[in-house]
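Appendix B. Chain record.
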Amino acid sequence: MRVTLKSLRIVSHLIVGLFLAALVNLDGRGRFSRENLSTWWHRVLLRILDVKLEVRGTPMTGTRVIVCNHISWLDIPVVAAFEATRFVSKAEVGEWPVIGWLANAAGTFYIRRGSGGTKQLIEAIDDHLGHDSIVFFPEGTTTDGSIVLKFQPRLFATAIETQRPVQPVALRYSPAANGTKTAPFVGDDDLVSNIYRLLKNGPITAEIIYCPVISPEGFDRAALAHETHTAICLAIAPDSVRTVTPRDARKAIAA
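Structure tokens predicted for this chain:
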């Protein structure tokens, strides 16, 4: 019964989200803030899912590039519930039913596969970084949270080209009371099954750990990716810290 009632609440909340998406898209005068509406919507979603936020460290004030490790689809609601910001996502997400509509309304920036994607992304977010922040997940895939995969360097060009500081943010989820790890969204998992596990197994805590800010000055994108990766690893997965050799650096720059 508990799972059924919460599932109905999620469906109702999705309908509210679609209404807000339509409202934003029809708002030619910019009276409604995409970021603030997104923050409110994601906070309510987390309450429905029984996900409690726990924040450590010091968020930087002002515009910055926020870089996170990637564990689950929950990462976006967790960060968005605390930060009035926008996200960078693969272009395919914008074409998905419902999820894509919500992402578009939230002002998500999309990056295309291939060499031209990064240049177009930098051009798209340059003006936005003048007054607000962006978030991206440079692992390119999810893990169970016990490790942090190598960061792909190309998106770090956004920080270097715009000279905006980078704030590494480490994400970590507690298991449910019965010991089940419900948050990770990995392998052949699907969204419906993952949400069902969350609702069935009860409350969890999502931990947001703000690491010290990194200035992009003097870094190339490979070095900045490594520096950010190290900061996040030291917060949650020290065994994932990588030693970068000159050969690794050349390969990363060419990636």
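Further analysis of this model is presented in Appendix C.
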